[in-house]
Specification:
This protein is mainly alpha-helical. The chain has one domain. Helices cover 43% and strands 5% of the residues. It has six helices and four strands, in the order ααβββαααβα. The strands form two sheets. Strands 1-4 form a two-stranded antiparallel ribbon. Strands 2-3 form a two-stranded antiparallel ribbon. A hairpin with a 5-residue loop joins β2 and β3. α2 crosses α3 and α3 packs across α4.
């Protein structure tokens, strides 16, 4: 059986494994969630600009990807870098957490070591350090601080949307 899921080489995993060993504040799921959140912000929510001079930004480095058949797409055909501000990323992560975990979002994030938007910034800057994300010259770690309160945003303001309601005859 063949899988279309790209495999990570040991060389790609080594920096993340070292990061997890050096900084035990966050679980690997926290890093995966932030990476997914950046893609969600760019692709699903249309956040970010293609112009790094447009202001503070956080972006994933241009990377190889696979087409529908699983064949690697060359770098020059890879999706363009789209810059997302620290605050935009925090709001996208809030929405993604609510969509994926509903009323349990705050608890799930806490189980990974994420208790505030400042933790998102710590994770992003750890990923920048190991070159899994990059930043513009305008970015600052403080852009992530106090964007919203987790209790207020993830618990008190949580609302069940129509598509989340249970099916009734």
């Amino acid at each position: 059986m063949e899988s279309n899921v790209p495999r990570s080489s040991a060389a790609e995993l080594l920096p993340l494994a070292k990061l997890l060993a050096d900084d035990s504040r966050y679980k690997i799921e926290a890093y995966q969630f932030v990476g997914t959140g950046l893609e969600y912000a760019q692709e699903a929510l249309g956040m970010g600009s293609g112009n790094p001079a447009a202001g503070p930004a956080t972006h994933a480095p241009k990377r190889k990807r696979r087409d529908a058949s699983g064949k690697r797409v060359p770098d020059d055909e890879a999706r363009p870098v789209r810059h997302v501000t620290g605050q935009e990323l925090c709001w996208a992560l809030k929405e993604l957490a609510q969509r994926q975990y509903g009323r349990m979002a705050k608890l799930v994030l806490a189980s990974w070591g994420i208790r505030s938007t400042g933790d998102f910034g710590e994770i992003v800057y750890n990923l920048i350090e190991i070159k899994k994300m990059s930043k513009s010259e305008h970015d600052r770690r403080q852009d992530f601080d106090n964007v919203y309160d987790f209790e207020q945003a993830l618990v008190q303001e949580y609302a069940i949307r129509k598509e989340e309601e249970s099916c009734r005859p």
